[in-house]
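Handout, section 4.2: multi-component inputs.
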Amino acid sequence: MTMPLHVAQVAGLFTSSALAVGGAVAVAIPIAIHLLTRFRRKPQAWAAMRFLLDAYHKHKRRLQLEQMLLLLVRCLIVLLLGMALAEPLLGGVARWFGARPPGRAVCIVLDDSLTSQAIGGDMKVRFELLRELALATVDQTQPSDQIMFVRSARPVDAALLTGTADRVSLRRAIESLKPRHSASGLEDALAMAAERIQADVPAGDQVDVVILSDFSMSALNVDKAVPTPITQLAARARMLAPRPQPGAANVQLLDFRPRRSVMLARAEGATSVPVELRLRRFVDDTADTLTGVVVRAFADDSDEPLIEMRREHRWSAGQRVAAVNVELPVQARGTVRLVASIEPGTAHDALDADNHRWALVELRRQFTVGIVDEHKLPDAAGFSPGDWLRIALSAQGAGTEVIAVQPGAATEEALRALDVCMVLRPDMLSPDDLRAVRAFAERGGVVWLFAPATDTPAVWGVEVGERLGMDRQIEIEPKTHEPPASPAIDTRAPRPLRLLAADWESLLRPIRVNRRLNLTSPPLPTSGEAPATAATNTWIALADQNRSPLLEAIPVGEGHVLLLTTALDPAWSNLTTKPLFVPLVHETMRGLLGDPAEARRIDGLVSGDAPALGRTWIGATHLQRVGGSDTVAVEMRDGGARVAVDLQQPGIYIAQPATVGRALPLNVDPDAGDTQAIEQSRLASWLTNAGGLQWLDEVNPAAALNVVTNRSNLGLPLLWTVLVLLIVETLLARWFSHARAGGQSWGRRILQLGRRVFAGASA
Amino acid sequence: MPTTATNYLDPASLAAISSLDIRARLIVEGLMTGLHRSPFQGFSVEFAQHRQYAPGDDIRHLDWKVFGRTDKLYLKQYQKETNLDLIVMVDVSGSMAYGSDDATRWRKYDHAASAAAVLTYLALQQQDRVGLVLFDHHIRAATRMSNSREHWRAVIDALNAHAPALNMPQEDRATDLARLFDEVLAKLTQRSIVVLISDLFDSPESFDRAMARLQHRRHDLMVLQTLDSAEINFPFRAPAEFFGLEAEGRLGIDPAALRRAYQQSFRDHQARLQETTRRYRFDHLVLNTSESLGPPLSHFLARRSANVSQGK
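Output:
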């Protein structure tokens, strides 16, 4: 038997395992008696030792053998008696010896996602009810059942999906569970369970899949087709599930973010930080319901709010989503933590976990922009591209510091102090310059390339494209538009430029482009918002009527490379003289500074994610949640930092040691808080496709797992065996001369006792 | 219970009498009621009977008168009624201290000493010379040969003085009966009757050699083997640790399991002893300490007396 002796396996063998263990322990009794009789013998003076020694030496081996045989029989009697009383199950024993009667696998899928924290109509937390159901299910299983357990909140926790017969440990594990903040992955959990069942549960075994969920809308998308692994389960599994919970009214913070994640702080006084806040409600859509929201700002190192502002929203009938804008006067610099909370005690709100959201905003003293351009003496004929750029940058006052960088001197050292590097003469960059510029972009900087206002073919385009790692090809021959081309005005402003969204069309309309560089790039969508390719996060701010890009942002490393395909020269376009130019320069610059790759990665983090943090987090060993004691380890992988396990508790996480200087906000997935109920018939249809569906009884939910078991225990045969062994023991003892010498046999003693009891009863 | 002398002969009664001489007199009193002739008839100087001549016989004992009357050659045989020498050898080794009856504390030695006292008393009553030898693996004590009535007191004193005890320190030495008999016989000047009273738990080979020496010296021997009933039946049930009384060591066993084997070994030993005594034509009597001493002793002496009278 290669199977190691395991408590769980023993538990599967008997109806009452404790008695079996007691029997096993009681084997020590005959052994103890045997040893005691060896060591505690009465001394007896004896004259005829000669004959005794002679007899002993002749029969020493026989005596030892007889004693061991008797001891063995007596141990067996005790052991088998304990086992007989413990009622060993035929199936369990057969499995123990390798044979395997048809069994049953019970797979419990427990939905511990965000909506399980909602309070139901009976004022109980839904998760508590689901957990009680899970425990009742475990209690209802048979000792021979193989129990599989999976938690369906993302990421799906399948640690106990391997199957166990140890109900005590499983029960303990379930009792210690708490609901998680992440969205439900019920579909994934079912698929994983289905695959595990197909792999581990022998064909012919009964399979019961117990899905314990509130079946809120966020739990399962019943509009989608049932995944293939689950449909394969349908042939052999029975689905058991409680009926869907009625929808619970819920108000949540759908979104909360500052309009800019990087802002210039005022030199004096408070800086106004505009934040956008969106509310959403489920189930309840009555009018005149009030929802109060409090927004607080905290300095990086303080628990006292810098400012706290309250807003109130009165819902209209049928209104589901509402926007609230708040201007927070913040007098601080550095990273500021922003927290928005729906006021406690809000009516028609069953779920508190989605009432809070966190965000970060960086308030900076100034931006530093480097302009890489050839040195030119002032030209009476007009403004050079560099002049136009300086004028545009100086429009915001002292907030922007401009540094001139000569081509050939654009070293990494020179670029290190910059936030943005604007290259007016990319054709003059040396290979070392290009290497430094690329390193600058990869660290999170913004590089803005402008088409040089020259008449020469753009032979530099290939080298620059390759050396900067752009997946775009700049054609050598500039394209001339006759008549001048106009930018397409039917696209919305891209996200970094969303502050211009209101005037976007009017700003674009006067722009004319005479010449531009041609880029070979993926085709643009016919309408709608750029970015063109979600895969590369490339976005196009401006394009002509033919969808050829005029201004395109290409991610490189943690930063961006922007390419304006027309030159800041009247011969190429009238951009510099139109109202769009100044806001375009500033908004593009600030939008991209607050939107490096890292910011994009961490901005949308939700509970259940284990994000890759990137190279700027190198050095961090763990994350510490502000206001909490929970920490999460950070590990280095693939040249960057990555959170070791999934983050669950929403809040602001700060990298430790603090010298790393990084932080990230974690919020719940607002869609995970959809507490609307799935329509029962649609759920039934979906689950039926996954297997024969049976609703759990509301009064006795676990009754569905009752099976008319043929207990087929071996207790009675074992009792007979014990009786036979008693007779054997009596005969052996008699044969070994014990009985003749005075009734040492247990069997004889028991028979005498029985005879006495019988005689007493008769009397 | 009738107060006849035989009532006092069972071990339980005898054990209550602490004085050995009184004990012996009681036994003798019961013994003499069925004994009409001396059991110790030895070598006579008076005519006893005729025997047909065989070539090689000493012609000095030819009865010429019978030859003259019948013309046949007969030898005259003689009978000696007095001056018998009786040597009583009593085993005082550690094994003789054993007694299974905890109530009476009647040991094998008590039985042996009583038998020795009785026999010496009877011999002294016949004016025979008596000597006592006490031995274990060598001679512990010995009395001189004497036919004085007062000598019995010396015998009784010696038996009392050398009684073995259970806790007596023992030497791990086997008794060599042959060597022991050599020592005893060396002191005898004439043919004697030797009475050996012992449990005879020594090796049968040694016993055989001793018998051979006695026969060679033409002495007569009476073997009174004193055994406890527990030694015969081995009735123990509970596991026990047996320790030998003659430094044989300790042995922890379940006696019930070994009972049959023990009895077999014991029976084999007894059979060899009996075969040896039978071969040398000596008398052998087993005295069970749980039984009365008188009847078997009386029966034994009567039978011996009859044998003597028949010239066997």
